[in-house]
Design a protein that fits this description.
Elements: E1 31-33, E2 38-40, H1 42-45, E3 56-58, H2 59-137, H3 140-145, H4 147-160, H5 179-190, E4 210-212, E5 218-221, E6 241-243, E7 252-258, E8 264-271, E9 291-297, E10 300-305, E11 308-312, E12 320-326, E13 331-336, E14 341-347, E15 354-360, E16 364-368
Helix pairs in contact: 2-4
Length: about 375
């Protein structure tokens, strides 16, 4: 488009002030060069100008185009947030209805059991009175003749005391489980800098098979055991493990680990009771009652705790691993920030204090600050 003969116009351009002039020609920046992505004057845009042959449009047209783009982007944000909000409200309603339903079911089970035990007590009282009457009023011969009846009455009394569907009296916490809520919650926690912990490795616990960086955030595996570390009661002397210096006893905690360089690692939490000495399973992460870890060995991923080793069918290797520990809800969650995927969630009555724990048997892993 030619700009020859165009009169002075007010240049409208993001980053250009009204009335800005071209440094080369001293004219108003009333045109926009799409090739150089900047406002230009009529002389620059015209024949013989530096932008001749470029994609040229009037500045106000470009400004209107930008306004339209911004409006579309704003509408898209509002539309998507509205959809997320609607989905969250629907999920909230569904979960609250499930909780209410489970509460009503448990309450009804308790009422049913109360009726059952009232009837059972009445039966026991009747049997008790019958047995007392026989023992009191029958002579020895009559008592011997009533032996079978006494035995049957005793058996009947024992059967009355058997538990009746006692598990139904408990509140089933699984009614609150929601993959959507868990994923949104994990994203919110890991996406908030205020929710991230300042986690560093405790040097006194680092295995001789590992090298610790100066900032105490990176562990590097070495096939040759180092003699630089003095042995002590806190140090792991066989397995390539290390504990964080920070421990948790309550609340919500989150941290992230860069694992993209390693094909063999464990990341999770461990109790202070985790043994440190020897090559037994009691010191190996995920193979005892004192540690809960996400593990990778080559292309195999799993969650490990005590005898439980649950395979995880991941389609790709995570480059970063988020760990969320909610001690109020008694939940440990492993999360991939890049895809927003919850890799595994585990609920248990965790002992405290709990420490972030790490093991690496190939290259390096690093705590992300």
């Amino acid at each position: 488009m030619s700009a020859e003969g165009a009169g002075p116009r007010l240049g409208l351009w993001l980053g250009s002030k009204p009335g800005s002039l071209c440094r080369e020609h001293g004219q108003d920046l009333s045109w926009f060069c799409g090739s150089e992505r900047r406002p230009v004057c009529a002389a620059c845009a015209g024949v013989g100008g530096r932008c001749q042959g470029h994609r040229i449009c009037r500045a106000e047209e470009r400004a209107e185009e930008l306004r339209s783009m911004a409006s579309s982007a704003r509408e898209l944000v509002i539309q998507r947030l509205s959809l997320v909000r609607s989905l969250c409200e629907s999920e909230e309603q569904r979960l609250l209805e499930q909780v209410h339903g489970e509460e009503e079911r448990a309450h009804q089970s308790i009422l049913t059991q109360r009726v059952h035990w009232a009837e059972a007590l009445q039966k026991l009282d009747t049997i008790h009175n019958s047995l007392v009457d026989m023992l009191t009023h029958l002579d020895d011969l009559q008592l011997i003749q009533k032996e079978q009846e006494i035995f049957e009455r005793t058996e009947e009394a024992e059967g009355i005391l058997d538990p009746q569907e006692s598990e139904k009296l408990n509140f089933n916490e699984k009614c609150t489980w929601s993959p959507l809520l868990t994923q949104l919650w994990a994203t919110a926690v890991l996406g908030s800098l205020s929710g991230m912990e300042e986690v560093r490795i405790e040097e006194k616990t680092v295995s001789p098979s590992l090298q610790l960086s100066e900032d105490r955030r990176t562990l590097t595996f070495s096939a040759k055991k180092s003699k630089a570390f003095a042995d002590g009661p806190e140090r792991f002397d066989h397995w390539p493990n290390a504990l964080a210096a920070t421990s948790f006893q309550e609340g919500l905690h989150a941290w992230m680990v860069n694992v993209q360089n390693s094909c063999a690692y464990n990341v999770g939490v461990a109790s202070s009771q985790l043994p440190r000495k020897g090559s037994g399973s009691d010191c190996r992460l995920g193979h005892n009652a004192y540690s809960w870890v996400f593990s990778r060995y080559d292309q195999e991923f799993r969650f490990s705790h005590n005898p439980q080793h649950e395979p995880l069918g991941l389609l790709q290797c995570p480059a970063q691993l988020g760990v969320l520990l909610d001690l109020q809800a008694q939940e440990l969650l492993f999360f991939e920030p890049a895809s927003g995927t919850v890799l595994y969630s585990h609920r248990a009555s965790f002992p405290w204090p709990l420490f972030p724990v790490f093991a690496v048997a190939h290259q390096t892993i690093s705590i992300i600050h």
